[in-house]
Backbone:
């Protein structure tokens, strides 16, 4: 698969779905008569999403995939949707069995925790299409005819994020960490470090990066995408060391970073209040490196969010902490790997020509409710009709001709070049760095595209 996002040649695999029973009232004799289904009518497709990790509103790959699925439903590509957040192998198996019973014709799985389970389900249900989001299939499952993977190379977008972080640091120290050392997270950390280094080289600055050594490719990992407490402790250590911009590549656990900032800010405010009552000069509220003691203000510590637009999709109390976001655009990948996935935001995605799409095109989850991927219970909304309610589908070849979705490519990798990943800049970017930051980012992205900046 090329890094341009152009789909590789693959044999089309058509999805199975059950036919809807059409019932009409027929005048005469006062009776009700069943009409035979139209043999040429498209068969309904039902999309189901399972995502690893626990917690609410993480604004990551799962939310991006869910928004794309909702957009497809609004566009008439999907007749129904269902979703469930899982916390372990047992709940994953139960969710996949539930989806099979609901006649889901398209099952998406977001995050590395679901890769192996989805591959096994794909082998057991060849009539159903399975798509991995931000995860590679197990090696033994590569090439499975009903399994596709949408992956991301966040290096370029993370490079821009590192440059932004360095440009906005008041203490001269930034930090980054990840949950697990996967290829995608390592690429993000490498890109972030390269962006910080590029800022230092171009500005003759000395911004320090904590948490990641790009030469050794080693750093801080929490070893969990769901334990926000671990992420909070790592973040607090970085704040104590003087970091005022932090990049958690930690999935749902990344919200712990926002919690740590809030805690440090609350302690700082309490310390100032007590000092004011005592008439004393305020001491540094947290233990920081001596050279930063007069500069660190915990209330000014900011996050670079990873996965989606954190300033738009995170819980309200965390949005204010987001400086910028590295966005992984699942909707473009789905258009690239699925023929028939004709939604407004992905019309040109299969050709990799979507870099100019608007940031909000992917849609947004409908808050908390039956369709929300954060609902552990996984209540479904309008699933495909159960087999017992469906009319006789008839000849298999006829059914295949009526199905609307097919595999276009077994894999697609989104990157900065094809628009599959991008930096969502600060909302007040026009006011930052004397108004020059936006122009600087545009120049950097052009230089990356032209090969004048070598990414790691």
Residues:
């Amino acid at each position: 698969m090329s890094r341009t996002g152009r789909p590789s040649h693959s044999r089309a695999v058509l999805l199975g779905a059950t036919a809807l029973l059409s019932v009409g009232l027929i005048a005469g004799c006062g009776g009700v008569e069943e009409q035979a289904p139209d043999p040429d009518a498209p068969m309904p497709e039902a999309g189901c999403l399972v995502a690893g990790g626990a917690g609410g509103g993480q604004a990551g790959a799962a939310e991006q995939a869910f928004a794309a699925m909702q957009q497809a439903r609004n566009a008439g590509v999907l007749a129904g949707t269902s979703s469930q957040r899982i916390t372990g192998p047992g709940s994953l198996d139960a969710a996949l069995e539930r989806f099979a019973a609901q006649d889901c014709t398209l099952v998406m799985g977001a995050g590395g925790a679901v890769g192996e389970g989805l591959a096994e389900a794909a082998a057991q249900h060849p009539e159903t299409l399975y798509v991995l989001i931000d995860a590679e299939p197990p090696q033994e499952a590569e090439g499975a005819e009903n399994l596709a993977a949408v992956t991301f190379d966040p290096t370029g977008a993370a490079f821009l994020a590192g440059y932004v972080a360095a440009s906005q640091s008041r203490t001269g120290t930034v930090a980054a960490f990840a949950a697990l050392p996967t290829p995608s997270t390592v690429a993000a950390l490498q890109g972030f470090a390269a962006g910080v280094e590029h800022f230092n080289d171009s500005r003759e600055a000395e911004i320090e990066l904590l948490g990641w050594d790009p030469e050794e490719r080693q750093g801080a990992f929490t070893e969990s995408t769901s334990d926000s407490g671990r992420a909070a402790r790592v973040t607090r250590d970085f704040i104590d060391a003087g970091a005022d911009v932090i990049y958690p590549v930690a999935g749902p656990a990344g919200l712990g970073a926002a919690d740590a900032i809030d805690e440090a800010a609350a302690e700082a405010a309490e310390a100032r209040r007590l000092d004011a009552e005592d008439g004393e000069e305020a001491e540094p509220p947290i233990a920081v490196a001596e050279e930063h003691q007069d500069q660190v203000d915990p209330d000014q510590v900011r996050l670079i969010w990873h996965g989606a637009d954190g300033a738009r999709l995170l819980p309200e109390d965390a949005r204010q902490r987001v400086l910028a976001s590295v966005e992984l655009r699942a909707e473009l990948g789905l258009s690239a790997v699925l023929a028939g996935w004709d939604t407004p935001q992905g019309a040109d995605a299969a050709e990799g020509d979507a870099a100019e799409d608007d940031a909000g095109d992917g849609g947004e989850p409908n808050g908390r409710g039956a369709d929300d991927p954060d609902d552990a219970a996984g209540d479904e909304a309008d699933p495909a009709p159960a087999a017992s309610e469906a009319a006789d589908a008839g000849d298999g070849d006829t059914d295949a001709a009526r199905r609307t979705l097919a595999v276009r490519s077994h894999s697609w990798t989104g990157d900065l070049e094809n628009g599959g990943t991008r930096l969502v800049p600060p909302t007040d970017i026009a006011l930052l760095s004397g108004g020059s930051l936006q122009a600087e980012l545009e120049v950097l992205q052009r230089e990356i595209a032209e090969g004048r900046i070598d990414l790691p």
